[in-house]
Amino acid sequence: MDSISKAIALAAEKRRSGKLENPLSRSESVQPFEYTKTRRIVIQPDVMHENRLIAGGDQQIVVDAYKLLRTRVLHRMQQNNWRTLGITSPGANVGKTLTSVNLAISVAMKHESTVVLVDADLRRPSVHKCFGIEVEYGLLDYLEDGIPLERIMINPGIDGFVVIPSHNHGHTESSERLSSTRMERLVRELTERYPERLVLFDLPPILVGDDVEAFSPYLDAFLLVVEDGKTDIAEYAKTIEILEHEDVLGTVLNKSEETGHGYDYYY
Ligand SMILES: Nc1ncnc2c1ncn2[C@@H]1O[C@H](COP(=O)(O)OP(=O)(O)OP(=O)(O)O)[C@@H](O)[C@H]1O
Ligand SMILES: [Mg+2]
Fold it and tell me: What is the mean pLDDT of the chain?
């Protein structure tokens, strides 16, 4: 086991000791999802396959790894009656967006589960690229210009799955936007309109700017992603320290060579 794996195991042990446990409460049954006003887009299987989306017919071992992640995430979210989950990492380019998208697809593919994935990485938005979507309206159009929620929501052809993309690269006031009252209203709209829907936020890296910390009041829990052999142990420790008072569900060890299939999940 390399040092980052040991650090993750240690963090998991800390969690098992009960430090971050919340009181239990059960969720109700899932409501049917409505697409009356949501733009529906057909994503070509080859686009999904090229971008490693599990809906594009990935290897079974990869699909199964995301199913395991889904089951554990849903279990913890439902146990605690949590609705909003932020996916982040210490540094850049470790697979946060791919993990967010595949986790969302996996949740949507589960019977009676619904999910919305929000691209909250205003500096380097990329969820739309995974689907090959041309973004007409995105998150900033809602936050800055009052474009209604219905017009920024996209259904990428998978039942129970809605994407809210972003497309304005290099936004310089991203943390101000993420902590704005309009953002608070968006989170409220997303969670109140469909009380059973899981809301995932693809976030920027935590150690690059203050976006994640500014947004953390709107999140019930975090999921961390690290890259095997790339994420630095000191960066990981710093991240855990920053999130000390937050609920962290666990850490995905992405691109791991240990099991040979590229995806690992430490709970
Ligand atoms: N397990 C994996 N196996 C192979 N390729 C992967 C894996 N995870 C991610 N990638 C690839 O690595 C690249 C970076 O992934 P991704 O965009 O998800 O990272 P990110 O952490 O969101 O980056 P950023 O910090 O820029 O937001 C993409 O090309 C993605 O397809
Ligand atoms: Mg990303």
Answer: 85
